[in-house]
Amino acid sequence: MTDAIVLKDIRKVFGRLEVLHGVTLRAAKGEVVSILGASGSGKSTLLRCANRLETPDAGEVRLGDLVVPAVKADRRTVDLLRQRTAMVFQAFNLWSHRTILENVMEAPVHVQRRPRGEVREEARALLDRVGILDKADSYPAQLSGGQQQRAAIARALATRPEVMLFDEPTSALDPELVGEVLRVMRDLAAEGRTMLVVTHEMGFARDVSNRVVYLHQGQVEEQGPPDQLFTRPESARLRQFLGLAEQ
Q1: How many CB atoms lie within 10 A of CB 115?
Q2: Is residue 118 part of a domain?
Q3: SS3 sequence of 192-235
Q4: pTM as predicted
Q5: What range defines the domain where residue 133 resides?
Q6: What is the pLDDT of residues 188-203, one digit of tens each?
């Protein structure tokens, strides 16, 4: 299978703390890769290195034919990487002073310079797709957390990304709102979207992922198909993380 994105030997240091110790991770086109690990394992930092929200100290990111080295990456190359990926954050990060429709239209109009009429039509279709077209003219504060996260997913889709990055997209939601966001993500996976998902939702990781990666202290401890990792993990640390009895 053709790789959509490859994170190769990614290393990240904050002060004296090395958070990522040369992590390599890849996702083929149409593959959903869930990234698991305890708090502080480096999952979110790895995801942020994927689109250069964090600058790695070593390694490189490959997105199709685009290669972005950790050092000496020029601004144009980094901009191309960010244009071809889209991030969905824990905290929604919607513009509070813009309507939901305006939030979705912002990047396609002002960054990608696409025609406003075309973008408006597509944005409305995306809001309909995630089930909140009736909220198009509302402001973020008028929506529930689940609705705001679905708006954030529509905003990410509006840029037509090759790879979607999800950083614990349900962690800030009340339990009763988690399902509506996961349903949208399951639909995206069924469409063949390439997705890297940092998540604590074990059911999603098990049922939707093509592959699961378990990070421990900034290194890949184990990876493989979800059936294998959730039922027959080789790592004692992963068994402990999953709450499985020692075998």
Answers
A1: 10
A2: yes
A3: CCCEEEECCCHHHHHHHCCEEEEEECCEEEEEECHHHHHHCCCC
A4: 0.94
A5: 95-160
A6: 999 999 999 999 999 9
